[in-house]
């Protein structure tokens, strides 16, 4: 009882400090803080290794990227069944802890491989790490947002998810800064151990959040418990294709990823021709990540919650597609290095600051099983399937003689289709949220 009162008092104090930025209630503040630290930890862990992955991809040449993306899709196919089995049989906090510690063990293994191998063996170790890093990123982030959709209600998510996302952004800034500053002194492989330590902080945070969220759910009326999620191994796939709502969430992710892949390839191609030194390329990618995260943080702290409340979910989901229409049109007219960098920074910041928190709100109105299984299928397999479509389409257009400008023009109608899809999805979400509020 004493600890509960202390927690309430701490929550009230934190809530008063945060009200200048977001609309948070005292009962939510402690859970909000642990959610923030949780996301900070996993994003800083990823951004420590992201520039290393991007440098490996750029060093191999753009011709090899489609094959790496194919390997990533295969990795998703291999990883999804055992993950779904864990979700069905274990309580969320247990399968999350197991998943993160499995990835920590992988990081130690890659550190050993990259330190001890030379020549072709080192090249293949780097390619395996590239594929693994993509799988790692999608799984740890998808698990995070699925857990939060289980902890917070739809109404709470619209107020709080933008601020929680800012924790990940600061984590990204810290991770990118560490890599940019230390890669020359420590070397690439030793940074993997830093990432492993940060993942253990995430495990500690999710355990604290799971304990605190029990009381939060009782007070807010949000559904969810500590039991295993249940269901079959394939239910994530079957639900995603049978439900019109989840099917449109799938389409939203697919279209987003195709366009992201186009822009990623354009960035990798320009970086390879602009920088000859591998450490310089690693620092270049880290600096882009740093710029993205700084801009994202400013938007998340000052604008995200206000944008979602003012525009609603439907219009907010159309903002990033609209930016993509304009950005690819500009690249079609002026395909330069700085045009690509500017568009990449704005688009990624718009995704992390606005589109991603809004899309995660869409999962708060679906059944509990879909928050983990269908969401994981969409965030991992569908995401990488979009990579495949984007990668091989990009390669095919290159064979047809289309350069950066021509591919950018071809991307514009895809962005328009994505905009229409986002509008429908947001309107349906708002309708489901109203129905859920009436039932409660």
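-> sequence recovered:
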């Amino acid at each position: 009882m004493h600890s509960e009162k202390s927690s309430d008092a701490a929550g009230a104090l934190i809530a008063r400090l945060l009200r200048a930025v977001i609309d948070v209630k005292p009962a939510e503040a402690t859970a909000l803080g642990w959610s923030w630290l949780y996301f900070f930890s996993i994003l800083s862990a990823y951004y420590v290794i992201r520039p290393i992955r991007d440098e490996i991809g750029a060093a191999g040449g753009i011709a090899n990227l489609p094959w790496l993306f194919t390997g990533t899709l295969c990795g998703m196919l291999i990883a999804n069944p055992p993950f779904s089995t864990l979700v069905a049989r274990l309580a969320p906090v247990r399968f999350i802890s197991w998943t993160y510690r499995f990835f920590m063990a992988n990081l130690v293994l890659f550190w050993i491989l990259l330190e001890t191998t030379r020549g072709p063996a080192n090249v293949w170790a780097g390619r395996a790490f590239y594929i693994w890093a993509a799988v790692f990123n999608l799984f740890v982030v998808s698990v995070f947002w699925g857990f939060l959709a289980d902890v917070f209600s739809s109404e709470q998510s619209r107020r709080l998810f933008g601020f929680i996302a800012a924790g990940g952004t600061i984590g990204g800034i810290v991770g990118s800064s560490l890599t940019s500053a230390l890669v020359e002194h420590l070397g690439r492989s030793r940074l993997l151990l830093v990432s492993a330590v940060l993942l253990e902080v995430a495990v500690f945070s999710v355990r604290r959040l799971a304990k605190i969220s029990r009381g939060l759910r009782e007070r807010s009326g949000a559904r969810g418990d500590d039991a295993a999620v249940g269901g079959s191994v394939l239910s994530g796939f079957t639900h995603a294709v049978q439900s019109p709502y989840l099917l449109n969430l799938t389409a939203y992710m697919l279209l987003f990823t195709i366009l992201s892949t186009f822009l990623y390839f354009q960035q990798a191609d320009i970086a390879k021709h602009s920088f000859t030194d591998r450490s310089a390329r690693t620092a270049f990618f880290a600096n882009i990540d740093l710029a993205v995260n700084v801009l994202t943080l400013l938007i998340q702290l000052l604008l995200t919650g206000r944008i979602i409340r003012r525009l609603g979910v439907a219009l907010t989901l159309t903002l990033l597609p609209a930016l993509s229409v304009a950005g690819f049109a500009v690249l079609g007219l002026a395909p330069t290095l700085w045009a690509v960098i500017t568009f990449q920074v704005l688009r990624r910041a718009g995704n992390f600051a606005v589109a991603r928190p809004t899309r995660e709100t869409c999962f708060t109105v679906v059944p509990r099983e879909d928050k983990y299984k269908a969401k994981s299928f969409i965030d991992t397999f569908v995401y990488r399937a979009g990579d495949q479509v984007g990668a091989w389409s990009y390669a095919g257009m290159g064979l047809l003689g289309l350069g950066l400008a021509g591919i950018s023009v071809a991307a514009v109608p895809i962005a328009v289709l994505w905009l229409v899809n986002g509008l429908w999805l947001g309107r349906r979400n708002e309708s489901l949220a109203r129905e859920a509020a009436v039932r409660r």
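The CA atoms of residues 39 and 280 lie 29 Å apart.
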